[in-house]
Write a structure and sequence with these properties.
By secondary structure, the chain is of the alpha+beta class. The protein has helices at about 65-75, 85-95, 115-145, 205-215, 215-225, 280-285, 295-305; strands at about 95-100, 105-110, 150-155, 155-160, 175-180, 185-190, 200-205, 230-235, 255-260, 260-265. The radius of gyration is 36 Å and the shape is elongated.
């Protein structure tokens, strides 16, 4: 039996009167011309994380740090090839760099007059900080010589560090070694090795430098391995105040505070007896020149003049 298939368009829906087309949906409003207002939040697709904004560029009036001064110094010494990073963008925005085009078509960077002035100012600040540090180092070393000790500056000494617990095997006696550079290293002026009493002085004139140094446990352990005592000498900031309190320095280390032209003991160091110095330390001391101390004969002649 065959079923007849109707030919032609399907009949209209029963709920709509015949001959009336269905209504069309309204068109969406067109977006406004131009960029959206700055206060409007960005739009992203659902299910994705919101976009991360780029770091802000250097704003006029914001201070430039040491990274910018270092980059200016590198560009001044080099041919000026750009790196294309955010540091150069901030320097260009601040007007400290200018872009130049060579005859071959390559782009280079040159310091502007403002960049030269900024680099000179940064160099003066570094020299002032270095001068304050060196002056305090000299003061501490001279104080050690007044106490009848032999003092050295700028030594590089081999120190022994204990092996970390996680890296220590059962029954193993291996140790780690490092090169320590104390600001002042001094021993007694004696011919008996057990009476040498080595002392390490670390001088700090910047609070940031001190806090960064206190976080280095291995450096402090190296100083304690070299000397029977380890002292931190704290300088003063631009306002004449100490850069830190004695309580901020690690336990076991002594603290000397600079007060004008004097050095005041704020906390005594824990003394650890040292029976003998390592051979490598003796070799380093023999190769280096100790600081000139007071000449007893010269002092006697001064007393005779009175």
């Amino acid at each position: 039996m065959l079923l007849e298939t109707p030919i032609g368009p399907p009949p209209p829906a029963p709920d709509l009167p015949p001959g009336i087309p269905p209504p069309t949906p309204p068109f969406p409003d067109l977006p406004p011309e131009g960029d959206p207002p700055p206060g409007e939040p960005p739009v992203w697709e659902p299910g994705r994380e919101p976009p991360v904004a780029d770091p802000p560029l250097h704003r006029a009036g914001d201070p430039l740090g040491r990274t910018h001064a270092r980059r200016l110094r590198e560009l001044h010494r080099s041919a000026g090839w750009p790196c294309g990073d955010i540091v150069e963008v901030e320097l260009l925005a601040a007007g400290l760099l200018t872009r130049e085009r060579t005859a071959s078509g390559h782009e280079t960077l040159r310091l502007s007059d403002a960049g030269i002035a900024h680099l000179a100012q940064a160099h003066s600040g570094n020299r002032a900080r270095l001068g304050a540090h060196e002056a305090l180092v000299e003061q501490v070393a001279r104080q050690m010589t007044r106490n009848g000790r032999l003092a050295w500056r700028g030594l590089r000494l081999r120190a022994r560090l204990a092996v970390a617990d996680e890296g220590k095997e059962e029954g193993a006696t291996a140790a780690r070694w490092c090169m320590a550079c104390p600001d002042v290293f001094s021993i007694r002026n004696t011919s008996v090795e057990a009476y040498c009493h080595p002392i390490v002085h670390e001088i700090k004139v910047s609070r940031a430098d001190l806090l960064g140094d206190l976080r280095k446990a291995d450096k402090r352990a190296a100083y304690l391995d070299l000397g029977g005592e380890c002292w931190y000498v704290l300088g003063q900031d631009a306002t004449g105040r100490a850069i830190a309190a004695p309580e901020e320095v690690s336990e076991g280390c002594g603290v000397l505070m600079q007060e004008g032209a004097r050095l005041v003991v704020a906390r005594a160091a824990v003394h650890r007896p040292v029976e003998r110095l390592p051979f490598a330390v003796w070799m380093a001391l023999a190769k280096a020149q100790p600081l000139d101390g007071f000449d007893d004969d010269a002092q006697d002649s001064l007393i005779a003049c009175h």
